[in-house]
Description:
- This protein has 2 domains: 7-20 and 83-115 and 244-452, 3-Layer(aba) Sandwich (Rossmann fold), CATH 3.40.50; 28-70 and 118-231, 3-Layer(aba) Sandwich (Rossmann fold).
- It is an alpha/beta fold and 457 residues long.
- It has helices at 2-5, 47-50, 56-63, 74-83, 92-98, 119-131, 145-157, 167-172, 174-182, 196-204, 212-225, 238-257, 273-287, 305-308, 351-358, 369-383, 389-408, 426-433, 444-452; strands at 10-11, 21-23, 69-71, 88-90, 103-108, 136-141, 160-166, 186-190, 229-231, 264-268, 294-300, 310-315, 324-329, 363-367, 413-418.
- The strands form 4 sheets. It has a 7-stranded mixed sheet, with helices on both faces. Strands 8-7-6-9 form a 4-stranded parallel sheet, sandwiched between helices. A two-stranded antiparallel ribbon has the order 2-3.
- A hairpin with an 8-residue loop joins β12 (310-315) and β13.
- The protein has 19 helices and 15 strands.
- It is globular, with a radius of gyration of 21 Å.
- Pyridoxal-5'-phosphate binds at residues 116, 118, 145, 235, 268-274, 343-344, 388, 390-391, 419-420.
Amino acid sequence: MAAEKNIPYKIYLEENEMPTTWYNVRADMKNKPAPLLNPGTHEPMTAQELSGVFCDELVKQELDNDTRYYPIPEEIRNFYKMYRPSPLVRAYCLEKALDTPAKIYYKFEGNNTSGSHKLNSAIAQAYYARQQDLKGVTTETGAGQWGTALSMACSYFGLDCKVFMVKVSYEQKPFRREVMRTYGASVVPSPSDTTNVGRKILEQFPGTTGSLGCAISEAVEVAVSNPGYRYVLGSVLNQVLLHQSVIGVESKIAMDKYGITPDIIIGCAGGGSNLGGLIAPFMGEKLRGEKDYRIIAVEPASCPSFTRGKYAYDFCDTGMVCPLAKMYTLGSGFIPAPNHAGGLRYHGMSSILSQLYDDGYMEARSVEQTSVFAAAEQFARVEGILPAPESSHAIRVAIDEALKCKETGEEKTILFGLTGTGYFDLVAYEKYHDGLMTDYIPTDEELQKGFDGLPRM
Ligand SMILES: *Cc1c(COP(=O)(O)O)cnc(C)c1O
């Protein structure tokens, strides 16, 4: 108890305490995540097939289920030093406001210009592209955090960066677009007439406002048809979870320093990268039977891949050019209702997290967006930070769990991931404040349409 008193509001690490390795949780999984499959032959993708799409080192990381620790190259560690360690904050003010005996901690990843954790993987992916002497990379972005992170990373390493931005975001989030252009990226609204797949989609669905799945298809096409280019993705993939493990490794070092052990670890889940990163070292202990933690993935009720999806092989993109991944999915044709404002709209989920969830190592919960924004506002008013809507899914469940502790009198320790800031999401906040935000939960029939589009294996 005495030690508890000395826990500062913010726990930082000294430079010499910072992680020097990423942790690959697959090494400790008994049931490994299912391999990516060739969409034509349904055979596991080989390194050679993948090397047309991704950088060689990233292919290696993607396929490596065995190496437990990856040294973080020095140049990446130097870049990390500009904005890491990210603070681990004891939410004393929130605890007081909730009048809960629970101890709440959050790991805040919004302290960089991209405003989210995505920079942790962007800088790694750009580094390996530079190592391979590539000219540039292509990618997709929805709300724009990933595109921003990647443009920052590419400008740092002198790489060309082409971003396909979902058209509706391109039009509604011009500021995000200008940040990317400031870092030298070229930003194209998707679907566009600059690719075959884009032209095909435009012909089939004139006036479409685009989707992530569609932007992915365009970005992949440009990467594979231009020498010296590769495609990079900001979530879902094993390699991205590996890089994001820096979040969890830092958290663990900071908590160990003060003798803190979380009982419950909570994160929002879109494609699964921040959650996979945050929980990685804790999950490792759980998998090895050393410790037990409750781990909760939080997703929007309007895009409920874990809680209502199917665990099956699916397409990762609309154009069906990407490898098939086995994951909890709503089907690649699923598009969340237009009133959905809170991000986390990808139809599928990381294969690693899908396997861990299927094996019972973690729980999942879905929450409705008005309750997410209520939590966001409550948090902002006492902790100061304006949270991203995505992050606020985790805040919602952290608050709910803290309130349960109030009822039972249990002094549980809760750790949640605060993935980013919400300055570019003020239109959604406006809707919430004006009482115009609604909740939408897809019906079973609507979900069935998405499942009908799953590939037959
Ligand atoms: C992209 C993003 C997410 C969701 O992506 P994951 O891969 O599931 O982590 C969550 N929060 C913020 C702020 C994001 O930018």
